[in-house]
Amino acid sequence: MKNLKRISLLVILMTLVISCTTMKNDANAPVSGKVESIEGGKDGYTAKITTENKEVYFATISIVNVGGPQNYKQVKIGDVVTVKGERWKTEDENHIKVTEIVSVK
Predict the structure, then answer these.
(1) Which of 47, 54, 55, 58 is most solvent-facing, going by the fewest CB within 10 Å?
(2) Which residues contact 13 (CB under 8 A, 6 or more apart)?
(3) Is residue 52 part of a domain?
């Protein structure tokens, strides 16, 4: 009986650790897609990115969040971009605060 409790506790603990790791990695995974539109802002812009899976992300790209002017890039409509950053979802929209512009093609 004691071993059964220990094994059950170990399984629950492992499940918790794996699920937290999976959620964290998914939230920081890069987003790649085609830039559909751009809206200018005070120190950057918001690009609407559509992925190959037809997911739409509103990517907020600012000089401050990417680490300064040396890391900042202006994308154009039609560019295919890959960005990393903090993602969140509202009721019907996906957002990402870009902290790194990985590539622009």
Answers:
(1) 54
(2) none
(3) yes
